[in-house]
Write a structure and sequence with these properties.
Oligomer: single chain
Number of strands: 0
Strand content: under 5%
Largest sheet: none
Radius of gyration: 39 Å
Helix content: over 70%
């Protein structure tokens, strides 16, 4: 494997930076060379070079080619497994959503049925029975709160 070529600038005469050559002055940070942000791909390539360089130097091109072939196979398998995993997760999430939706609809239907039954009971009760029921509930809540105190 070929090592990456690192280019260095040769010093040519005086620097063009403001304040260069003066003792005790700090260089202007805005004028200094700005590094480009490193991408994930560049980081991976650098790491791959560091990991594979000893293989190339010690065992030669044939061993390096075998390592690269195995790495490509491993990456393909990994990609397939991750894709399958995410597909299954999406499917399970949709099923869970449908179950929760069905449960919500079922609960709403039960509540609607309960409300209709109460409405029918209220219609059958006379006005006196309704007042009596409300008074009984109020006295029960008052006695319960007095017992808690």
């Amino acid at each position: 494997m070929v090592r990456p070529i690192i280019k260095r600038r040769a010093a040519k005469g005086k620097s063009t930076r403001p304040g260069a050559g003066k003792r005790g002055t700090a260089s202007d940070p805005a004028v200094e060379l700005k590094e480009q942000p490193v991408t994930t791909r560049e980081i991976m390539v650098r790491r791959l070079v560091v990991l594979t360089e000893p293989i190339m130097e010690q065992y030669g091109q044939a061993a390096f080619d075998e390592v690269m072939t195995r790495m490509e196979t491993t990456l393909g398998d990994f990609s397939e497994e991750v894709s399958t995993l995410f597909t299954e997760m999406v499917h399970q999430s949709r099923e869970e959503h449908e179950r929760l939706k069905a449960m919500l609809v079922q609960d709403e239907a039960v509540e609607a049925a309960d409300t209709t039954e109460e409405g029918q009971e209220d219609a059958e009760m006379s006005e006196f029975e309704k007042r009596l029921a409300r008074t009984g509930q109020a006295s029960e809540s008052n006695s319960a709160s007095a017992t808690n105190d």
